[in-house]
Amino acid sequence: MKQVPLAILLTLLSPWVVAQSTARQGVSEQDFLDEMPVVLSVSRLAQPLDETPGAVTVLDHNFIRMSGARDVADLLRLVPGFQTTTSFETDAPVASYHGRNDDWANRIQVLVDGRSVYSGHLQGSAGLGLQTLAMDDIERIEILRGSNSAAYGARAFLGVVNIVSRDVRETSGPRVRFTGGDNGVADAAASIGWGSTESAYRLSADSRGDMGLRSAYGVNRVSRVNVSAALSMDKGRELELRAGSLGIDAGRGSTGSAGNAERSRFLGAQFVQADMHVPLGFDQDVQFTASHTENTHRDNFPYLSTAAGVNYYGIPIDFGAREVTQAMTLQHTARWSEEWRTVWGGELRREVITSPASFDARGSVTSNFQRLFGNAEWHLTPTVVLNSGAMLEQSELGGNTVSPRVMANWHVATGHTLRAGVSSAFRPPSAYEKYAAVRYYDVNGANPITTVLSSGQVGPEKIYSRELGYNLSLPWVGVSGDMRLFEERISDGIERPKKAQDSDPDDYRNIDNYRITGAEHQLQWKPSASALVFLTQAWTDVAGAERFRVSHSAARYAMSLAGMYTTDAGYVWSMMHAQSEDIALMSDSKQLYTVARTDFRVAKPFRLGRSKAEISFVLQNVDQPYRDGDWKFRFDRRAFVSLQVEQ
After folding, report:
1. Angle at 261 between CA 260 and CA 262, to 5 degrees
2. Structural domain tally of the chain?
3. For residue 516, what are the β-bridge partners?
4. 503 burial level (CB within 10 Å; 0-12, 13-18, 19+)
5. Distance linking the first and last C-alpha atoms of the chain
6. Cβ within 8 Å of residue 314, ≥6 positions away
7. b/e for 274-285, b at 16 or more Cβ within 10 A?
8. Containing domain of residue 218, as a range?
9. What does the radius of gyration of the chain's CA atoms come to, in whole angstroms?
10. Rounded CA gap, 601 and 180, in Å?
11. Spatial separation of the C-alpha atoms in residues 225 and 223, rounded to whole Å
12. Is there a domain that residue 611 lies in?
């Protein structure tokens, strides 16, 4: 706990925020009496933060903008318990909670407007899905820190990130943004919204790119197009339609490595989604959601080595794949009395992954998921709220599983809430972990060399979680926060056993058993409408894991500090610092590292004719270059300027 006094001191050393903001402008009572944020993605019921069954971090549009982050994964480094990397080497930039499995962040669920963007390719990841929306199109991000399979199924093993897009009714008119600076940073974005309160539409397109991390190969470019519509119908019914396309061109590979040669690869996604909301009287409603998502992975190069024999020189190496996911969800929400609310429903989901490179002669794997979920909120007394819920799930990959959760929230006094609960969850093996058959044939299409051959003798990994929490909300002094004490026991973790001989192919089995314990908190201080301080800390211990990279995949200690202030002259100043100590990187199984980064941003809004405009300057990583994900890769100092103009 030696870092606690330092963190408290950093917060208390902000008297300039209070002194300047209160002296220069009057502070209205409303500034301190804002309602407690309501979140949607914890139990599937709209709940205030002090009644949710878990610890939640909410990053709103203003925080996202003032952070200067160009990427959701990069922004999540400010959330307690998260590990992030901006590398495009293995996947798109990823974020994981309480560690990771190899190079994949496959134990958190990521939703975009309620649609799962989890990719089942290889060992599973939400890295591609994190790139779905441009930062300007995001209204808020809700992060549940802890297992939430009771509400969202298997992939919500350790947590849920729900990215909520901006309401199309509130983004009318055109908007453009241009960004340029160090390391080849070159971004451009444009959007236009039109319509009325009955029918509103938005079209947005953007492209962001740079030269990537030092020592990593290739130029990275993310391109997106998104279309949204909100239609109000008779009898209070509402229909929301969304469609989008995402393309990532990125480099990967290593100089002089024939088995992992430098090359460019492409990651793509296209989707359509429809959400229908139908009120059933004053206290009930039904929501129906349907979506179709296609992901594309293109990554190939010739093998220019004779290490495997002269007959293998020049053979094509292809890591490509195509995924098609279709999902339908129906849920019913009802308030039965002042004390009782429920939500229940079902989901049908079909995932087809086609990849001869991963499944050899089999070629593709089809997985069908059937889910039945429910959650009940019961106000036992005026001060005690009980949330109980469960998810019943069946799939070819994981069989039949039940993921229950029970959480009690006790409003001890005004602004002070204690929370305690337990849950259990499952993560089924990915199609690759269960059915992979990776073989390389010689130039004549014969004599296969098998590097991965899954026996199929792998089932879902399990987690049993216990947590104690404390939610703080004192709007009259501008203070809010949340603390979480946790124990997460993972059993039957999916891992590759040690091979008897180096030439034996890899397999996947349920052989990992370990425990994650610790504490984490977030504290937000808003002394005025023009100032904000946001502090997080996390202490995490992973005990019992056999592999070094698993036992140290979560930092022993991590913290972040963000401060934001608007002057009377209209300048918006912000600072973000994130630090992780004693953490293993993806390609180093022997050494622990400390990773720290500090960013600054200053922006000035102004009028440009009849339009609103803002020019901003961002300086990322003001200190020394740090290792990002891989010990070979460095994140150097970057400076860039942005100009935004909107009606």
Report:
1. 125
2. 1
3. 488, 542
4. exposed
5. 49
6. 302, 303, 304, 443
7. bbbbbeeeeeeb
8. 3-587
9. 25
10. 14
11. 7
12. no
The segments of the chain whose pLDDT lies below 70 read 1-35, 101-102, 588-589
**In contact, 190 and 178? CB cutoff 8 Å:** no
Is 15 a domain residue? yes
Beta bridge partners of 645: 176, 613
Task: Say how many residues make up the chain.
Answer: 647
pLDDT digits (tens, 9 = 90+) for 50-82: 999 999 999 999 999 999 999 999 999 999 999
Indicate whether 645 belongs to any domain: no
Dihedral pair phi/psi, residue 118, rounded to 5°: -65, 130
**Residue 5 amino acid letter:** P
**Is pTM beyond 0.90 here?**
yes
Closest CA to 251 of 291, 293, 209: 209
Nearest CA to 579 among 553, 562, 598, 551? Answer: 598
Q: What is the CATH number of the domain that holds 446?
A: 2.40.170.20
C-alpha torsion 48→481→131→42, nearest 10: -30
Q: Tell me the C-alpha to C-alpha distance, in Å, between residue 248 and each of 24, 263, 382, 401.
A: 46, 14, 51, 35
The encoded tokens of residue 204 equal 């947005």
Q: Does 267 fall in a domain?
A: yes
CB 131 within 8 A of CB 524: no
CA 90, CA 104: separation in Å to the nearest integer? 8
